[in-house]
């Protein structure tokens, strides 16, 4: 670990830089732990530019923990629609209910109590407690992992156990005795805006003279690159079933990709030849209770989900007849096309809904 003189200089220069460089972000308007919590969950694997609008709409709809706890999950998911990683929204809702039930609706101050909330790990608990309460809690997320690895000239994979242990230790080692709220935000800001993955602005960095990677002329090689994700191609079909001005929607079950969201009945198929086979019609009948032929194609949507690259063909159903199957875990409903905006739809479901609205 760096010595005390290095640490004091680092703290001083980081805080001085942040005083003039901090971005004007809506969740920085005050140190309300509820708003900080919402922003931290939204910012997981999502860009700041995307989160701004979602954050403002979300806190306008649910200004307090109690408001969020009292909301229907469908309403929470509807406001989250488009942000992805919907498990975050469901855990946010569950955590709000736990705060109301166990903490009288007040966001807890104790680190361990914050850590015990659904969807909150060590980093998020540290971010909330340090930013809201000035608690001496270290933080380590994507931006500070990169920043700290470069400061220490750590050439191994920082996401492995040894790297994580070192970087968490460093994050704790550099904490100042006061103004930890600004300090931790400054670290994240520096990683996000200056110490970027590619083409970092070393000439504008307030701690460039303290950086081990720069001293070794190894900034471009640190941190060690992650192994590239191996993607699997997948072919799926969404079926649009019409009944006058209504279409059939299905709510995704608890173990499905978009649990809790609504979508058009959707199926995985092995090949293009399966689209017109009786097997797909048979799967459609088993899932919905309706008999129908697979008709013309409305559109094709290509998108990625985790390790899959998905080609989604959207087809009309022809001659649909029968009675809807009852399934409490994945309900089916007829929805008016002009009311589809009221449903929390999957990303591709929303694209199909827009097409139908035209």
The share of residues in helices is 40-55%
CATH architecture label of the largest domain: Orthogonal Bundle
Structural domain count: 2
CATH topology of the largest domain: Endonuclease III, domain 1
H-E order: HHHHHHHHHHHHEEEEEHEEEH
Could you give me the name of the CATH homologous superfamily of the largest domain?
Hypothetical protein, domain 2
Number of helices: 14
Structural class: alpha+beta
Instruction: Describe the sheet with the most strands.
Output: 4 strands, mixed
CATH class designation of the largest domain? Mainly Alpha
Family: Belongs to the Nth/MutY family.
Catalytic activity: Hydrolyzes free adenine bases from 7,8-dihydro-8-oxoguanine:adenine mismatched double-stranded DNA, leaving an apurinic site
EC number: 3.2.2.31
GO molecular function, one term: 8-oxo-7,8-dihydroguanine DNA N-glycosylase activity
What's the short version?
With about 350 residues, the chain is of the alpha+beta class. The protein folds into 2 domains: about 5-220, Endonuclease III, domain 1; about 230-355, Nucleoside Triphosphate Pyrophosphohydrolase. The protein contains 14 helices and 8 strands.
Mind explaining what this structure looks like?
- Helix 1 crosses helix 11, helix 8 crosses helix 11 (180-193) and helix 9 crosses helix 11.
- Strand 2 and strand 3 form a beta hairpin.
- The protein folds into two domains: 4-221, Hypothetical protein, domain 2 (Endonuclease III, domain 1); 232-357, Nucleoside Triphosphate Pyrophosphohydrolase.
- Helices cover 43% and strands 16% of the residues.
- The longest helix has 18 residues, at 4-21.
- It starts with a helix and ends with a helix.
- The model has no long low-confidence stretch (mean pLDDT 93).
- The protein has 358 residues and is of the alpha+beta class.
- Belongs to the Nth/MutY family.
- Residues 42-193 form the HhH-GPD domain.
- InterPro entries: A/G_AdeGlyc_MutY (IPR005760), DNA_glycosylase (IPR011257), Endonuclease-III-like_CS2 (IPR004036), Endonuclease3_FeS-loop_motif (IPR003651), HhH-GPD_domain (IPR003265), HhH_base_excis_C (IPR023170), HhH_motif (IPR000445), MIG/MutY (IPR044298).
- GO terms for molecular function: 4 iron, 4 sulfur cluster binding; 8-oxo-7,8-dihydroguanine DNA N-glycosylase activity; adenine/guanine mispair binding; metal ion binding; oxidized purine DNA binding; purine-specific mismatch base pair DNA N-glycosylase activity.
């Amino acid at each position: 670990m760096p010595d005390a003189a290095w640490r004091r200089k680092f703290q001083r220069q980081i805080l001085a830089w942040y005083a003039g460089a901090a971005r004007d972000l809506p969740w920085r308007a005050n140190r309300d732990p509820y708003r900080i919590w919402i922003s931290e969950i939204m910012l997981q694997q999502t860009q700041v530019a995307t989160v701004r609008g979602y954050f403002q709409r979300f806190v306008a709809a649910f200004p307090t923990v109690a408001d969020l706890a009292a909301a229907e999950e469908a309403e929470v998911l509807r406001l989250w629609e488009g942000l992805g990683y919907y498990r975050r929204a469901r855990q946010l809702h569950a955590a709000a209910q736990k705060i109301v039930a166990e903490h009288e609706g007040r966001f807890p101050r104790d680190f361990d109590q914050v850590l015990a909330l659904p969807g909150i790990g060590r980093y998020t608990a540290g971010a909330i407690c340090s930013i809201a309460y000035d608690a001496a809690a270290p933080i380590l997320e994507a931006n500070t992992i990169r920043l700290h690895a470069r400061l220490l000239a750590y050439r191994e994979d920082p996401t492995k156990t040894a790297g994580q242990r070192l970087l968490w230790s460093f994050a704790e080692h550099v904490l100042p005795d006061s103004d930890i709220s600004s300090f931790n935000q400054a670290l994240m800001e520096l990683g996000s805006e200056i110490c970027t993955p590619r083409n970092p602005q070393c000439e504008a960095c307030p701690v460039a003279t303290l950086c081990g990677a720069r001293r070794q002329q190894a900034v471009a090689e640190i941190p060690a690159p992650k192994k590239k994700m191996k993607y699997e191609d997948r072919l799926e079909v969404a079926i649009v079933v019409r009944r006058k001005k209504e279409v059939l929607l299905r709510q995704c079950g608890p173990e499905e990709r978009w649990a809790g969201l609504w979508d058009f009945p959707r199926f995985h198929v092995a090949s293009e030849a399966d689209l017109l086979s009786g097997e797909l019609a048979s799967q459609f009948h088993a899932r919905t209770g309706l008999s129908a032929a697979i008709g013309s194609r409305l559109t094709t949507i290509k998108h990625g989900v985790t390790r899959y690259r998905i080609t989604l063909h959207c087809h009309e159903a022809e001659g649909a007849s029968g009675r809807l199957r009852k399934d409490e875990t994945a309900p089916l409903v007829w929805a008016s096309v002009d009311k589809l905006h009221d449903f929390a739809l999957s990303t591709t479901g929303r694209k199909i809904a827009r097409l139908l609205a035209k």
